[in-house]
Amino acid sequence: MASASGSGAPAAAEALRRRRILSSRLYLDDVPSSSSKAPVVYSPAYDISFNGMEKQHPFDSSKWGRVRNSLEDAGLLQSDRIVEPLEASEDDLLVVHSESYLNSLESSEKVARIVEVGGSVLSAKLALEKGWAINIGGGFHHCSAQEGGGFCAYADISLCINFAFIRLNISRVTIIDLDAHQGNGHEKDFGSDGRVYTLDMYNSGIYPFDHVAKKYIDQKVELDSGTKTEDYLENLDKALKVAQSRFRPQLIVYNAGTDILDGDPLGRLKVSPEGVAIRDEQVFRFAKDQNIPILMLTSGGYMKSSARVIADSIINLSKKNLIDIGTRCIEVE
């Protein structure tokens, strides 16, 4: 089992990892915490196309731009207040991945999601500065240090956390993974790392059926296909109460897939759009009540309606004062 934390890695390899993190440009140190920017991260490069081939693919490759457009149309967030991330360099990716793994990727995979990786890494910095951050993208939770899978070529969650350990000087992170699929990538990466606590609630009847990774989940909630909104939210409420009693993090990484929506061809759950908004509200309230910074990644979602649901949920978070678009700093204990 490969550990992204490198707790058992040779000292020289760990020193190299640290140097790469400290020399990275991804944290955009020129974005001051009191600036007019909101801690919402997006780049037009998130929206990908491959000469029309994306139309034959179940992944909605333009969903991120449509989320941004919906937020602007609603008057919540103008484009000049969004933080645009940098593209992750090869040295950045090598913090977690090996050269042999990166060389094995097809050219389309190398280009397509690399800016979203930069966005996920940057989001942790913004979350610590402002109490919350949302990357309108990211959440490639099937990718581990050693292998990709399920549309996920880069381990952005593992990268994000490794950067946070070194650059933000924190040592306790909770991953709340509520994508419909098991987050087997980050589970393998942090399975033996006591600094990371994983709560994963997923449909046990769909991909990836990773029984090795399951052993590393600190708190798993396995759902049946067809689970409806009320049961879903009840399971989540119980799970958050357990998580609160077990672990006190300094940062929450929230993987907020919308493939839990009723009708999603890959998630096979039956949660309503209103249920997704309530789910996100529960998680952000969980973080706010404990004064824990939180970053949200949008992860999976394979229907055209997902973009509107994500935007509506962000709008709801603002209305409920769970995020402050005007920015407000939260002290980290």
Topology at a glance:
Layout (H helix, E strand, L loop, with lengths): L10 H13 L16 E2 L21 H11 L16 H4 L5 H6 L2 H6 L1 H17 L1 E4 L20 H12 L5 E5 L6 H6 L6 E8 L7 H4 L4 E5 L5 H18 L4 E5 L17 H17 L4 E4 L8 H14 L14
Parallel strand pairs: 1-2, 2-7, 3-4, 3-6, 4-5, 6-7
Helix pairs in contact: 2-12, 6-7, 10-11, 11-12
| Number of extended strands | 7
What is the CA-CA span between the terminal residues? 32 Å
How does the helix and strand content classify structurally? alpha/beta
Unreliable sequence segments: 50-57, 327-333
Q: Major beta sheet, specifics?
A: 7 strands, parallel
Please state roughly what percent of the residues sit in beta strands, choosing from under 5%, 5-15%, 15-25%, 25-35%, 35-45% or over 45%: 5-15%
Overall domain count:
1
Number of helices: 12
> What CATH architecture would you give?
3-Layer(aba) Sandwich
Widest β-sheet, arrangement of strands: 1-2-7-6-3-4-5
CATH superfamily: Histone deacetylase domain
Query: What overall form do the CA principal axes indicate?
Result: globular
Domain Histone deacetylase: 115-315
Keywords: Hydrolase
InterPro entries: HDAC_classIV (IPR044150), HDACs (IPR000286), His_deacetylse_dom (IPR023801), His_deacetylse_dom_sf (IPR037138), Ureohydrolase_dom_sf (IPR023696)
Organism: Panicum hallii var. hallii
Describe this structure in words.
The structure is a single chain. The chain has 333 residues and is α/β, with parallel strands linked by helices. The protein has a single domain, classed as Histone deacetylase domain (Arginase, Chain A, 3-Layer(aba) Sandwich), CATH 3.40.800. It has twelve helices and seven strands. The chain has a seven-stranded parallel sheet with strand order 1-2-7-6-3-4-5, with helices on both faces. Helix 8 (184-189) links the parallel strand 3 and strand 4. Helix 10 packs parallel to helix 11. The radius of gyration is 18 Å and the shape is globular. This is Histone deacetylase domain-containing protein. Keywords: Hydrolase.
